[in-house]
Design a protein that fits this description.
Elements lengths: L8 H9 L4 E4 L13 E2 L4 E12 L3 E11 L5 E6 L7 E8 L10 H8 L3 E4 L13 E4 L4 H7 L1 H5 L3 E6 L8 H16 L4 E11 L2 H16 L5 E5 L5 H14 L3 H21 L24 E7 L7 H10 L5 E6 L24 H16 L6 E5 L1 H16 L6 H7 L6 E5 L4 E4 H13 L7 H10 L4
Parallel strand pairs: 6-9, 6-10, 10-11, 11-12, 12-13, 14-15
Antiparallel strand pairs: 1-3, 2-3, 3-4, 4-5, 5-9, 7-8, 15-16
């Protein structure tokens, strides 16, 4: 599941504030509440600060590079970005499964971060065979860029923790899960984190770490997220293994089959390594299958396109069916025809009119986290692009008019009606209330008579929904 870079939100905010970036380092230890020495809990979870860093953008923003270990597990590397006032607030974990880092001090990270972006031999991956194993995508990222990517959370007074999965280092599925568990345990050690307001985000393969890591943290340490936000997530590895095996029956194109085999090879090797003790047994992948997630207790928001050829949308359908959560939100990008495996590209969406715009979907994911984790009495700031929102809504209306079931989108629209929400239109640089954004787009497609103003539109969403 080739990941795409998270939006560099700092550039959106700078569009309005005309800020200038100035990278600096080594703030005084009192600026962040993690001490320079290791912090150890009775269960042998240890975290230490590798470096104190900061950057300037309409003020100085501090962050820390963290090494965490638990027992004999491989270390987890994280980036702790407190809110600017270093006061008690909710926190967001952002799980980066792929990104390569250059600051851990480990030779493997130095090696991969120096390689070019794009395909590289998976020579540190499990069961690697130089003749048959596929390449993986290398995605170097600097800690400064990563910190700037989290600016939207900081501007909403939230703390942020980036957890790096380091896929390139050969970590298995079990490593993804452990990294996320370590993230929860780190936040549990922070006195400035409101433990009742922790959220977590990732996409695609990152869904494995988020979902099973959250389940493990809750089961083993009673550490629970308030909310989970995901984009086209892998949620059932047993089903994914079966999907990989089914590709020959889905396409008659020999070239296309080879593309699927090559794409899934690194994932299959990592899954098999994590479960090799059960090789040959029918229960081999049960530990990472949907029934294991049934007891997860958090509000959940998922975006998924039903033209996703990498992670079938049925995974998300089944996930929502099996979980007993009362607060579930989903945005499905619906299409009038089924996937044509002979012609469709390998991607989470298909290029053209019906493509799910990544920037647009990510604004929904972040919008959900921010409005779930912040005080409704404070001003909450999110971003959007008017043209892509218009295209998204237009597609939903076309599908609705054609008889498709778009009812799941109603609850998503309701997110625009949450109180004290200000949305930055990155195309114009102007701010609008969430309800005003909603009424504007509704009136574009239904005529100005659909609703007179934002509050009227939000009320009508309940009594006479547009989709």
């Amino acid at each position: 599941m080739t990941t795409k870079r998270l939006i560099t939100v700092i550039s959106l905010l700078c569009f309005v504030t005309s800020c200038k970036l100035n990278f600096t380092s080594k703030p005084t230890p009192t600026e962040i509440d993690t001490p320079a020495g290791p912090v150890v809990d009775p269960d042998q979870f240890t975290s230490s600060v590798l470096s104190d860093e900061s950057y300037v953008s309409s003020g100085t923003h501090t962050y820390q590079l963290i090494k965490a270990t638990s027992g004999s597990n491989t270390p987890t590397y994280m980036q702790w970005i407190p809110n600017d006032t270093n006061t008690t607030a909710g926190a967001v974990i952002v799980y980066y499964p792929y990104e390569s880092i250059d600051w851990s001090g480990e030779a493997i990270d130095t090696k991969w971060s120096a390689l070019a972006s794009g395909g590289q031999p998976d020579e540190d991956g499990p069961y690697y065979n130089v003749a048959t194993s596929s390449q993986i995508a290398n995605t170097p990222i600097s800690h400064l860029t990563a910190a700037q990517n989290m600016s939207l959370f900081t501007s909403n007074k939230l703390h942020t923790l980036i957890v790096y999965g380091r896929y390139y280092s050969g970590t298995t599925v079990a490593g993804d899960v452990q990294a996320v568990v370590d993230g929860y345990r780190f936040l549990n050690s922070k006195t400035v984190v409101d433990k009742t307001k922790i959220g977590i985000y990732s996409g695609s393969w990152g869904g494995v770490g988020v979902l099973y890591g959250s389940k493990a943290a809750a089961t083993n340490y009673n550490l629970k997220p308030k909310t989970i936000s995901l984009s086209y997530p892998v949620s059932d590895l047993k089903a994914l293994s079966a999907y990989m095996d089914s590709i020959p029956t889905l396409t008659t194109d020999v070239t296309k089959r080879a593309q699927y085999v090559a794409f899934f090879d690194p994932y299959k090797r990592r899954l098999d390594k994590a479960t090799e003790a059960l090789a040959g047994q029918p229960t081999r992948y049960d530990k990472y299958s949907r029934p294991e997630l049934a007891s997860l207790d958090a509000s959940l928001f998922v975006i998924h396109d039903d033209w996703d050829t990498l992670v079938p949308v049925g995974f998300t359908n089944n996930l929502f069916t099996s979980m007993t959560l009362s607060d579930k939100y989903v945005y499905y990008q619906r299409h009038p025809t089924a996937i044509d495996y002979d012609t469709f590209i390998l991607n989470h969406s298909q290029a053209g009119l019906h493509q799910v715009d990544y920037a647009t979907t990510l604004t929904w994911n972040y919008h959900f986290l921010i409005t779930e984790l912040t005080d409704p009495t404070q001003t909450r700031v999110t971003s959007f692009a008017r043209s892509t929102y218009e295209a998204q809504f237009q597609h939903m209306k076309i599908m609705f008019d054609g008889g498709a079931d778009t009812s799941a989108f109603r609850k998503t629209l309701g997110l625009l009606c949450r109180p004290n929400l200000q949305m930055l239109d990155v195309e114009s640089g102007s701010f609008y209330s969430g309800s005003d954004v909603f009424v504007y787009i509704m009136n574009v497609y239904y005529g100005v008579a659909w609703a007179a103003d934002g509050p009227a539109a939000c009320a009508k969403l309940i009594t006479n929904p547009p989709f």
